[in-house]
Design brief:
Layout: E1 6-9, E2 22-29, E3 32-37, E4 41-45, E5 59-62, E6 66-75, E7 85-88, E8 91-93, H1 97-105, E9 114-124, H2 127-133, E10 137-140
Parallel strand pairs: 5-9
Antiparallel strand pairs: 1-2, 1-10, 2-3, 3-9, 4-5, 6-8, 6-9, 7-8
């Protein structure tokens, strides 16, 4: 497994938070893994959150069940958003969120450039591998995470 891998939930996860979910793995090391659900929109948009009420409506995705008090984001515009960590070719995790929001509100970043998440998915050492082995997740390739 490596960062940038996309995994999809199998029928074993039916009736759970992860039913029909596609996840992007953004961090993977000997301590575990971190990722985000990339195909489930949250019911509110960025401008519906008090801190961003004067901005444009921009989708937020339901990134995962962990730390639902914070926003996270991936993007493919390091020329606009500095400080992100490379995930895979052309995709970065985090960075200067204030710059990202400003660029969204100036229409310089679109849904094709950035994806914002509420919460994340996390696994301890070997936990994700065990879930894949038991058949809960299928490792896939080729899905565009910005669709």
């Amino acid at each position: 497994m490596k960062t940038g891998t996309i995994i999809t939930a199998t029928s074993l996860l039916k009736d759970t938070f992860f039913e029909a979910a596609a996840l992007l793995i953004t961090q993977y090391n000997d301590k575990g893994a971190m990722g985000f659900v990339i195909n489930k929109r949250f019911e509110r948009t960025l401008n519906q959150l008090a801190e961003f009420k004067n901005g444009l409506p921009f989708p937020i995705y339901d990134g995962g069940p962990v730390d639902r008090e914070h926003l996270y984001f991936i993007h493919r515009r390091p020329d606009i958003v500095t400080g992100g960590e490379p995930v895979c070719e052309g995709v970065f995790l985090g960075g200067d969120f204030a710059a990202a929001v400003k660029a969204i509100n100036n229409s310089k970043l679109t849904e094709q450039d950035v994806k914002i998440f509420l919460g994340y998915c996390g696994w301890d050492t070997a936990e994700l591998e065990a879930e894949i082995e038991e058949g809960s997740w299928e490792v896939t390739n080729g899905q565009d995470m910005f669709r």
